[in-house]
Amino acid sequence: MAGNLEFITSASGTTVSALDLTDCFSADYDVYYLTSSLDIGTGAGFWQSNLLDSGGSTLTGAYYDVANLELQANTTFLEYRGTNASFWRDLGAYQDDGKGYGLSMYIYNPFDSSSYTFVQSSSAGMFTSDTVLMGGKGIGVYKQASTVYGIRLTNSGPATYDYISASIFGVK
Prior knowledge:
This protein has strands at 5-16, 18-21, 31-40, 47-52, 64-72, 78-85, 88-89, 100-108, 117-126, 133-142, 150-155, 161-171. The chain is mostly beta strands and 172 residues long. It has a single domain (5-171), classed as Sandwich (Jelly Rolls). It starts with a strand and ends with a strand. The model has no long low-confidence stretch (mean pLDDT 85).
């Protein structure tokens, strides 16, 4: 996506199960760029994300749809499709103990109360051993026209993040 990135906010945490970026969406931009990196602790899982309302609460309900392609270097590619979920799942590569990952995500129309919110993501990291690379790419939609103020990044498994950081930019 061509354009200039304008920094909005960032957050980080250690030994946490989730990271919130609040009050980061506004009428100033239609498109946002999120970048995140992490090191997962004991356990495994996939990146999950929920959108947040003006009070920082998660927007739940059966409104999230996602399609993801997992690109493992040691086997065939895997597809995941989820509809009518209460969160976006698999918008990023599989995470495993002590491995580092990176995620980038474009978020479209989050503050527009008359439009659905869409995402497009890509990710990279190590899978199950230090010798197997894995990437992911995905798309998602939040099928409720509402104003979104932030995003929560979590893990689908029992793991906590040894370290996680994320930054949001507006795309001009």
